[in-house]
Each structure stands twice: as structure tokens, then as C-alpha cells.
Amino acid sequence: MRRLNGRAKVHGAKNSALPVLAASIIAADRCIIRNCPDLSDVHSCLNILRSLGCTARLEEDIAVIDTSGMTGCDIPESLMRRMRSSICFLGALLARTGSVTLCLPGGCELGPRPIDIHLASLERMGADITERAGCISCTAHNGLHGGVVPLSFPSVGATENVMIAACTAKGTTVITNAAREPEICCLADFLNACGARISGAGQSTVTVEGVQHLHGCVHTVIPDRIEAATWLCAGAITHGDIAVSGADVSHLMPVLPVLEEMGCTIRAGNELRLIAPERLRRVSVRTMPYPGFPTDCQAIVMAAAGVASGTSFFVENIFDSRFKHVGELRRLGAHIRTEGRAALVEGIKEYSGAQVDSTDLRGAAALMTAALWAEGETIVRGLEHLDRGYQSPETELAQLGADIIREDE
Ligand code: EPU
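That is the input. Now the predicted structure with EPU docked in place:
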């Protein structure tokens, strides 16, 4: 249990890099993606591009992709399974080749993750979709066309797929009830730099005027707002005084008031500084689509609330099953009760060290955060979850003064 002090760096956003890399397929050209994080999910994405005959490499934080010589249009099942967000290839492959078969990633640790909104939207744009033995085939031999595409829920992935597919569709596509996450804006900026004509990204209605061809470009991925929030929670739980560099404060607007409600002082300038109180205070959190509180931050804030004074209340509105970390936090001594999508967290003074298992990416981050304020040693197993979304988190935390090491299992 050490008070963290110092500076942590934020890398490029995983959830921006993945759709941008997938979208490079419709550029059919060379794209240079800067600030690309070095994560296992990014490597899975690069492997998918290679399996399709594209060239793809990551040097430091620059991904160089050339999709001009792409030969395939089907993603092998083994690669689909390795990265659940591989659904982000659907719109790009369909637009580029007019035909794509992919096997569904299946259920996941966050509960079932259906893709009905993706499929219904692409159908509206002229795709024929058939499903057999867990695999879906989409064809659009006469090309996709525009029109109004209303989303029944502002799904991030569906908004991205439709936006990508609409770039070279005939006519104008108007996506209503679109997701408004910063990652949508990053993808639209990338596509526009490739010659697309997208307006309204970041708002509920996104308009895409189809063009004939796209071309390559140089694009910079936005900073990872969830990684930034993770370092802020690490500072908060350890009563620390930390600075986070490289974050975009505007993307963290849904999170900062929650940390302030917990008693933290936040100063936003060139860096984001967080000064935590002697004891965090209780908080109420309801996850919502952006600009609401992000579901990806629910677990890490819950870890902090676990040692706050009073009883905190969480409602998870985005995913069916995103409380799997609760059982593991309990092993560290947390007093948490859940019912359906709600959790009541009765704050204790400190956690006690134990062996815990990561359940999913953000659950793993929550366990790592809780371990920072646990008496004795905590062993967090299953780091493959953490490595999907955090680049050397132990180095970043050790720089802040945490007593943390990585050991091979
Ligand atoms: N949904 C449907 N049908 C669909 C699509 C979504 O029912 O066709 C449901 C999902 O099952 C879920 C909700 O709608 O309950 C939200 O899903 P959404 O499509 O918005 O999420 P996503 O695109 O699958 C992205 C991030 C997630 C993040 C969510 C919400 C990527 C690669 N993933 O997922 O990130 O939690 O948006 O913000 O961008 C993470 O980084 O840990 C992570 C899970």
C-alpha cells in the first residue's frame, strides 16, 4: 500500500486503433497510423489484415498498412475468436469486396454480444445476409446504397461499421441514433483523410456522402480515455497525487465529476493532475452511452469505491454481464452485493491481499487497481486479459511508485 506520486503516460486508444486498422481496407492503399498502441488486440488485428493478403507492421507506435494487394475476404475463425471486436472488419470487407463470410465471435465475458444492429443496418444498405452454422455471409454484388439507417441503440461498433460501409456506397447515408463516442470521431477523421465525406460524427445523426474511391493517408489515433481513467483511479485509491500526460481532457468529462464527487481534486492543464483525499467518498454511477459515464470505467471506479466511506451504488446499463470482477474483488475483502444490473458497494478501509483471477479486460484493471490498496501481497492471474488493452501497465504503475512486478505464469 503505497501512495502513488508522479506521472503516468497515456497511449493511443485501443478502441480507436482497431476500427481504424480495419477501415484501412477500404482505402486500398498505404495508410500510416500514428500513436497506435502495442497491444495484443492490435496484433490480432494486424494478423487479420495479413491473413487477407495485406501488409501490416507496427514499428514503435506507428502502424504501416498497405491494403492495395488484398486477396482474401474471409476471416479465419481462429483469428475471429482471438479478437472479439473483429466484427469491425464486416463493413470494410463488404464495401471493398462485395462479399464476406465470418464466423461469429460467440458469447463473451461481458454476456452475449449480438450483432443484430450491425446486420439490420447493412441489410438496409442492400446487403444480403445468410447465417449458417454460426457463420454469416454478407454479399452486396451490386454494391451498397445509401438511405436512412436508424440504429435501435447507439451501438459503437454498428455506427463504425455503417460509417465505413457508407463511404463508398451509392448516394448519401444518414445514420440516426448514432453512437457519439470520441472513437467515432477518430474513425470519421481517418476516413475523411482518406477522401470520405462524413459529417456529424460525434452527434446523433451522421451523414456520409458516398464517393467512388478512397486513398491512403497519415492519421493519428486519439489518446486512450479509459487508460487515462485507470491511472486516475490508481491515484485516487492510493490517496496519491499524480499527473497523467497525453490525455484529452474533453474525452474524460463524463468521468472527472465522479472522481471529484469522491473527494479528489482535479486540475486540468497541459496534464491532468489528481490529488486524492485521505479517504474517498461514496459515489453513484450509472453507465450510459457517451457522453454518459463509460461502461469501460465501471469496474475501476468500483475498485476505488470499495475502499471509500459509505455505500456506493452502481448501475450497468450497457452490458448484460459486466459485474464478473465483483466475485474477485470480494476475495480481496470487498463488501459488494449485486442484483441484476445493480451493485451496492459498502466501503471498507482497505483490501487484503489474495490470489485473484482476471475475468475480462476492465475487470483485470479493477483487480490491479484494488491490489494497490490491499494489505499484503496480491497476485492477479490471467494477464492476457489486461494485455488486450493496456501497454506495460506494470511499468506505468511502478513509475508512480507502486510495488508491482510481472511474473510469467
Ligand atoms: N448490441 C446489440 N446488438 C448489436 C450491437 C450491440 O444488442 O448489434 C448491444 C451489446 O450487446 C451491448 C450494447 O449494445 O450490450 C453496446 O454495444 P456496442 O456495440 O456499443 O459495443 P461494442 O462496439 O461491441 C465498444 C468497445 C467496448 C465498449 C463498448 C461500449 C471496441 C472494440 N469495443 O464495443 O470496449 O465497452 O463499445 O462503449 O470499441 C473494452 O474496451 O473493454 C470494451 C469492451
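The first helix runs from residue 14 to 27.
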